[in-house]
Design a protein that fits this description.
Layout lengths: L1 H29 L22 E11 L9 E13 L2 E12 L4 E14 L6 E12 L5 E12 L3 E12 L8 E11 L4 E10 L15 E10 L6 E12 L22 E11 L3
Length: 279
C-alpha cells in the first residue's frame, strides 16, 4: 500500500512536470506571434515575428477631460498598424469625437518608427525612434517625434513612449512633452493583467501659460485578451486624471489621450479591438 502511494506521488510529479513543459512550450510559441497592440497609451513597434498588418477600432469615454483622445464625451478612433520590413513600423489613426455639448469633429495622425536597438525578434529589449505628422481637432497641423522602448518575455511585457510634438501655430507651446508606460503580466494563456500610466503636457511643470491647461497624469489598470486561433484581440485601460499643474490659458484642441481642462479632475476609459489581417 505504501509502495503504491509512493508510486502514485511519483507519477503525479512526473505528469505535472510534463504538463508544465508543454505549457511552457505553447507559451514560447505564442510569444512573437501576438501583442500587435497590447497597450492603450503606449505604442509598441512590430517585428518580422509579429502579425504583419492590423486594423483596430478604439472607443473612449471621458468626464471633465475635454479634448480627446481625452475628448469630453464619446470618442472613436480607427487605425492601421503594420510592419514595413527592415525594422520599420507604420502607425496611422483617424479619430472622430462626439462632444457632450453636441457637434462632431475629427483628427488624424501618421507615424513611421524604426527600431534602432533590437527589433529582429519580439523577445527581449527594443528601442526605436520615429517621425510623423498630425492634424488636430481644430485643423492645426503638428510634427511628431517619438521614442519607443519595450521589453517582452514569455510571461510579461512592458512598453514606454516619450513623444515630442511641435504644433504649427504661434498660440501653441513651443514643444509638447508626453510620456507613457505600461506593464502586463500573463495570468493565463490568453489573458494579461497590468497597469498603465500617462503623463501629458509635462512642459506645464515649467511653463505657466501651457497651452493645453497644464500637466496631467493618469494611472489605472490594463487588461489584454488574446483568444487562441482568433484574428481578434482586446484591450481596455483607464483611470482617474489628475491635474498636476494648472494654466489659465484656454485649452487648445490638440490630440491628447486624456483631457485638457484646467479645472477639476476627471477620468477616462478606453477600449480597443484589434483585427489581425494575416492570422
Amino acid at each position: 500500500m505504501k509502495k503504491t502511494f509512493l508510486i502514485l506521488i511519483f507519477a503525479s510529479a512526473v505528469l505535472n512536470c510534463a504538463a508544465q513543459k508543454i505549457s511552457e512550450t505553447k507559451t514560447d510559441v505564442k510569444v512573437g506571434t501576438d501583442a500587435a497592440q497590447p497597450f492603450l497609451f503606449s505604442l509598441n513597434t512590430l517585428t518580422a515575428e509579429n502579425p504583419r498588418w492590423n486594423i483596430h477600432y478604439s472607443g473612449s469615454y471621458g468626464e471633465r477631460t475635454n479634448g480627446q483622445f481625452g475628448y469630453d464625451g464619446l470618442g472613436q478612433q480607427f487605425g492601421v498598424k503594420g510592419y514595413l520590413g527592415s525594422r520599420f513600423t507604420l502607425y496611422a489613426t483617424a479619430a472622430i469625437g462626439f462632444a457632450n455639448a453636441g457637434g462632431v469633429t475629427s483628427a488624424e495622425q501618421a507615424e513611421v518608427i524604426r527600431d534602432l536597438v533590437g527589433g529582429k525578434g519580439i523577445a527581449g529589449f527594443r528601442l526605436g525612434a520615429g517621425l510623423g505628422l498630425s492634424r488636430d481637432w481644430s485643423n492645426v497641423g503638428s510634427a511628431i517625434s517619438r521614442i519607443t522602448a519595450s521589453f517582452d518575455r514569455t510571461n510579461w511585457r512592458m512598453a514606454g513612449n516619450l513623444r515630442f510634438e511641435k504644433a504649427f501655430d504661434k498660440t501653441r507651446d513651443k514643444l509638447d512633452f508626453i510620456t507613457s508606460f505600461g506593464y502586463q503580466h500573463r495570468v493565463s494563456n490568453v489573458l494579461y493583467l497590468g497597469v498603465e500610466a500617462l503623463g501629458q503636457d509635462l512642459e506645464g511643470f515649467w511653463e505657466k501659460d501651457e497651452a493645453e491647461g497644464g500637466a496631467k497624469v493618469m494611472i489605472g489598470p490594463s487588461i489584454n485578451l488574446e483568444p487562441n486561433h482568433s484574428k481578434l484581440s482586446f484591450s481596455i485601460s483607464g483611470g482617474p486624471v489628475f491635474y498636476a499643474t494648472r494654466s489659465q490659458v484656454i485649452p487648445s484642441e490638440a490630440i491628447r489621450e486624456i483631457g485638457s481642462v484646467a479645472s477639476g479632475n476627471g477620468y477616462t476609459i478606453r477600449a480597443l479591438v484589434n483585427f489581425n489581417l494575416h492570422r
